[in-house]
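Example record used in the benchmark description.
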Amino acid sequence: MKARKSFLKALPLLSICCLSNVALAETQILKASTIITMNERSPRAEAVAFDTVSKKITAVGSFADVQAQSPQAKITDLGSTVLMPGFVEPHSHPLLGGMVTQSPAYWVAPYVGYKTWDDVKAKILKEDAAMPARTPLIFNGVDRLLQQAPTPTNKILDALTPSGRPILLLDNSGHAVYFNTAVIKGLPWANGKPPKNPVGGSFGRNADGTSNGVANEVPALMVVVAPLLGKAIPHPLLSGAKWYAYMASFGITSTSDMTYSSGEYKAYLALASLPDSPLRINVYHMSTEPDAAKQVTWPDPGMVRKQGIKLWADGTPWLGTVAQSFGYLDNQTTKRAQIILGPLGEKGMNYTRLQLDQILDQFAPLGYQMSFHCNGDVGFDVVMDAYERALNKYKLIGTDHRWRVEHLGAAQGDQFKRAASLGVTVSMSPFQYIYWGDLLDGTMFESSYGSQWEPLGDAFKSDVKPSFHNDGPVSPPNPLLNIQSMVTRTTISGKVHGANQAVSMNDALKAVTVNGAYQLKRDKEVGSLEVGKYADFVELSGDLTAVKPIEITEKVKVQGTWVGGKKIDLTKFINEVTAMDPSSHQDLAKSSLSTWHGHMR
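Model output (structure tokens):
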């Protein structure tokens, strides 16, 4: 601003007047009951002004001061509304999330109303009876732990689809797909016998070698799902747009695709080009893609940009494939879910240490931000060893690299301190505690481990700038619920486990704003309301810091979002995508499915 004022002083008076009039005509002011800026130097304000051309904030402060700077600006009084920076979710899968949860697919996860296996069965039977014959059906979200479901083999699914139509039931973990006999018959498998297991995947088989309707991991999963997904989802771009809108309905304005592949380029371009596109996207290219090192740009990098490379260390706690130092408890719950009791230690790693070093050697010299999926404490150690080697080798220690690690349910306090010393930041998964916490503590693991799952308290103490994410479509993208649950350390049932890991309200707010922006390397653009940053806002019905933390989701509602100074009309956005020709995006379903390999919680 000082440079701008000096420049104006150097101009003739007439020029100043003309420039001033143009600026005034392009400035808007929002007045609210209070504005939570997330700027530590000035945490509260009454008004914010922004330029409609640059789409950036020009003033924040008292209404009188803001208006004095732009006396002819258009003023919108939001009344009792509370304004905050748009929420930042630094780890998500928007296109994939839409295609496997939004109509015409069916989301049958336990936290969206299907609490038991009986609920899932009833839904499948209902849709099988209602849909036209031979139309394939896609269901996503069966959770063998929370719903206590058996492994849904073809015999089980045949009984649920008496019409004989093909059905795919995707596991909520992203590691498996279950399918009926109609699917098996439609595949080019002689006598119903799957081919040789691909590297990194496997097919379930009966004693006679025929398929039992199960495929594990993406190399096998792709063989089964790819032929049907395009038929079941005729407008995949619209499905992705529905997830965009779903995220925005929770107040999110910036997010990522943590498992990007090049086949999604056109889709992100198309969605970003729409006037009411509600999300800024940072994509992280999967390291397994042959063109992962390639530089990729979009016309408006403020809306979509390639940020980094995604890798994954271990698997999922819900199937027992985590690289951790402690095992699962042996009981009916873990047996029914067919959990590997372990502990697996380094056997739970998806890569050898040598392979990790080779991957980092490929991408680190190119300047990409690295991001590792990791749940187990053993996995965290291995990742930190690999990171430390690469950071030293390429002289990145002490630089602003911001390499990331994701999830970290079983992490330990000293590991966060080590990460901080290396300049590594972490994005944590409150949803793992919110939805599974009651099982984690005493059913899945001994209480000394299970109660400490997702140790946010330790993470904040170590200054690794933790953020919160929901890893959509693994769970609903609900920042307000994350804040409420991590401040009160409550699960969805209201129980408390590991109260020592509760965080302060201020830290929780940072996790969904400034810390998330920092991890996406957008902290100079979003995350707080300051001059020069984008005018991205979330409108709230009340001040979430003025109610009891346990009552946040009950008493505070998201009323809308703004992106770049534009109030987003989600209905208009969906209508714009609906009107697009779906034929140019027919390959999107297959491309996004290929990202499932990185989608391991």
